[in-house]
Amino acid sequence: MTAILLSVRPRFARALLDGTKKVEIRRRFPGHISGAVAYIYSTKPDCAILGTVYIRRIERILSNEVWHRYQGIIGVGEEAISAYLEGVTTASVLRISKPIKWDTPMPLCVLQDTFDLRPVQSFRYLSDDKHDDLNCWASIRQGSSSWKALNDSALFGP
Q1: CATH 3.30.230.10 fits 3-142, yes or no
Q2: Could you say which DSSP state residue 158 is in?
Q3: Reduced to 3 states, what is the DSSP secondary structure of residue 116?
Q4: What is the pLDDT of residue 143?
Q5: What angle do CA 84, 86, 88 make, to 5 degrees?
Q6: Domain ranges in the chain?
Q7: What gap in Å lies between CA 143 and CA 127, rounded to an integer?
Q8: Rounded to an integer, what distance in angstroms lies between the CA atom of residue 73 and that of residue 25?
Q9: Distance CA 10, CA 62 (A)
C-alpha cells in the first residue's frame, strides 16, 4: 500500500482530521497516489504528525472551478483559494476519507531522530518499512478505540 507524509498547515490539518475538510487542494500532485494512506504532518507551530487519512481519489480540474465545485468541503474562502491557485491552469483535488486523529501526536524530534524522516514542503513517499514503523509507533501510543480501526484491513480499502 502506498503511504505518504503530507505537510499541511495546522488549521487545515485539524480540519482534515476532524472531518470538516473533505478535500485537500494542491497546485501539483501525482495522480497515482489514489488509495494511499497519508500521515498528516502539521507544520509550524505544531511540527508533528497529528493522524492519518485515506486518499480515496485524486481529481484534476481547472483551477477556476475549484471554489464552485468544492466550496462546502474545502475549508478555505474563495479569495484564499484563488490566490493559492493563481498562475496554474489545473489543480489537484485530493478526496479524503477515514480520518483518524491520533491521541498522541508524533513530534518532529521523534520523526527525525527515531525514524530518520524529514518533512518536506508538500509531501514525500514513505517506504513500506517507514509506513510500518510509523504505524507501530502510533499503535503503541494510541489509547482510543479509533486506533484499533486503523489496523482493520478493511479500513484503507477502496
Answers
A1: no
A2: -
A3: coil
A4: 62
A5: 105
A6: 3-142
A7: 26
A8: 11
A9: 26
Do 50 and 42 touch, CB atoms closer than 8 A? Answer: yes
Residues with Cβ within 8 Å of residue 157, at least 6 apart in sequence: none
The whole model's pTM is what?
0.87
Backbone φ, ψ for residue 22 (5° rounding):
-105, 0
Q: Which amino acid is at 31?
A: G
Radius of gyration of the chain (CA): 15
As a residue count, the chain comes to 158
pLDDT value at position 152?
47
> Which residue in 29, 28, 11 sits closest to 20, CA to CA?
11
First-to-last alpha carbon distance for the chain, in angstroms, is: 12
Per-residue model confidence (pLDDT) at position 37 = 95
- Any idea which residue has 483559494 for its cell? 81
Task: Average pLDDT across each block of 10 residues of the chain; the chain has 158 residues. List them in order.
Answer: 94 95 92 88 97 95 95 92 95 95 94 93 94 90 55 44
Q: Which three cell numbers stand for residue 25?
A: 487542494
